[in-house]
Write a structure and sequence with these properties.
By secondary structure, the protein is mainly alpha-helical. Helices cover 57% and strands 9% of the residues. The strands form 3 sheets. The chain has a 3-stranded antiparallel sheet with strand order 3-7-6. Strands 1-2 form a two-stranded antiparallel sheet. The longest helix has 35 residues.
Length: 486
């Protein structure tokens, strides 16, 4: 009888449906505990953490887990009951209640299957993966503007690429109005692969009077008035390629930096440590700075080169997308703003011109007697509704990035040319350091040393950094050698 009840409880805990499992686990938790008392009960005193975890679930108490924990207190320490929680949720909620036997022959771990997530949760999980892809370390080895390029921008571009890919390959990216002579899938696939076109002059005609839709009109055999659209199947790949280009300067700097900042801070970013350990680490950092005081210029210049590459990349991508959209992207954002401010009767939508919703497609086939027949079709491109919003945002975002990066590079030029600005920056950024110490360090060191100290000051605890700067300044004052500035 006891064996039967024991097996029933284990089968219940291994069930795949969480609702049924919790009910059955809650209904028999005490019984299972009694059945296991002679050998190994459902949980032990160690089950209390499981109960605490249940209580920490954002105010949502789950009776089955609590009953199982109570049953564990009456048993031995061979089993453990706990609750499995879903990570990343603000209000933790119960996915399952499980019991694991730690003793006995043939015993093994048993964990209930998590409740199945819906399609919306699966989609959100895909975008949550972007967070780890561009995870920013707590150790900063670059400037905030530089981080905008390889973190925020890369995440945006990859997210847009996933959105377009989902819309492009899940569902119909194109739907063409066709005759019964051609199968629907054949015409749609043909027009998607071989591109579609619009009539340029039809964009300026009145819809419903002169033309049925913007860009749709009789071509009258004229090839010069046609505008072909061959880009839309390449948008998702282009966005992903742009993300790679934005991450390239970061990849270069990460390799050139070589983990120097991480190695030098030696966990000194947290000032809570023993005085002996703190004193030893400060001495190691000070000795490195003193021994290598003239050898950081090239290291700093390589970082400035990466910032320059970031500017070249964002400006180059504006021209790349202008080429991608047949010369219509450079003024795209300005045209959109002009369109929004124009009178509704006279305005002309530039987004429809670059990303048309309705296009034309020509399909040729053999007729009954062997003659070539020309079939005209009108196609709907619902994907362009998404594409136009993406590239309007990217136009303004790239413009902002180019502006901020240009200001950052001009600032770098001033830092290289003027030691006095370096002094002001150190004084302004690290107010706990004495002014005479800052003056002594900047005067007797080089630009690369200043850059290294500035990066260290952003990562090391402020009190520890103050002590290191003061001791370094004292050493420089006692040194008879004047290091040339560069």
């Amino acid at each position: 009888m006891a064996a039967g009840r024991k097996r029933s409880c284990n089968d219940t805990l291994l069930g795949t449906k969480m609702s049924a499992e919790i009910k059955r686990c809650g209904g028999r938790s005490a019984g299972c505990g009694v059945a296991h008392e002679p050998a190994a009960a459902a949980a032990a005193a160690a089950a209390a953490p499981g109960e605490d975890a249940c209580r920490a679930g954002g105010g949502r108490q789950v009776e089955p887990c609590r009953e199982l924990a109570e049953a564990g207190r009456r048993g031995t320490k061979s089993n453990l009951a706990w609750c499995v929680y879903r990570e990343g949720e603000r209000d933790s909620w119960l996915l399952g209640c499980a019991a694991r036997r730690r003793g006995g022959a043939g015993a093994g771990p048993a964990l209930s299957t998590a409740s199945r997530l819906g399609p919306d949760d699966n989609m959100l999980d895909i975008f949550r993966g972007l967070k780890s892809f561009v995870k920013i370390s707590h150790i900063h080895i670059d400037s905030p503007v530089f981080r905008l390029h390889y973190s925020i921008t890369v995440m945006i571009l990859v997210a847009f690429s996933l959105i377009v890919t989902t819309r492009q390959y899940v569902g119909n990216p194109i739907d063409c109005i066709h005759t019964k002579d051609i199968p629907e899938d054949v015409l749609n696939t043909f027009c998607w692969i071989h591109s579609t076109y619009t009539i340029k002059s039809a964009f300026h005609k009145k819809v419903g009077v002169d033309v049925p839709h913007k860009g749709i009109d009789n071509s009258r055999g004229s090839q010069e008035d046609r505008k072909s659209y061959m880009y839309y199947q390449w948008v998702c790949f282009c966005l992903f390629f742009q993300a790679i280009l934005f991450y390239t300067p970061r990849w270069l700097w990460k390799n050139w930096e070589g983990g120097k900042i991480h190695a030098l801070i030696m966990d000194l970013d947290v000032g809570i440590c023993s005085e002996v350990e703190k004193k030893q680490k400060k001495k190691l950092l000070l000795d490195y700075l003193w021994d290598n005081l003239r050898y950081h210029n090239w290291w700093a210049y390589r970082y400035y080169l990466c910032e320059l590459l970031s500017l070249v990349n964002v400006v180059g991508q504006m021209f790349l997308m202008n080429r991608f959209f047949d010369g219509a992207f450079l003024t795209f954002g300005i045209d959109v703003l002009t369109f929004m401010e124009s009178d509704q009767e006279d305005r002309w939508d530039p987004m429809i011109y670059i990303f048309p919703r309705m296009t034309k497609c020509t399909f040729h086939k053999y007729g009954v007697s062997g003659e070539i027949e020309k079939l005209d079709a009108v196609c709907i491109l619902p994907l362009n509704v998404v594409n136009e919003k993406i590239y309007v945002f990217l136009w303004f975002w790239f413009l902002l990035l180019a502006f901020l990066t240009t200001l950052s590079l001009l600032f770098r030029v001033l830092i290289i040319m003027s030691p006095r600005i370096r002094v002001y920056l150190l004084r302004f950024r690290f107010r706990m350091v004495r002014r005479d110490a800052v003056d002594a360090i900047v005067v007797r060191s080089r630009m690369g040393d200043w850059f290294l100290l500035y990066m260290l000051g952003q990562n090391v605890d402020c009190l520890i950094f103050r002590d290191v700067m003061h001791e370094l300044a004292d050493r420089l004052k006692r040194s008879p050698v004047m290091l040339p500035d560069a």
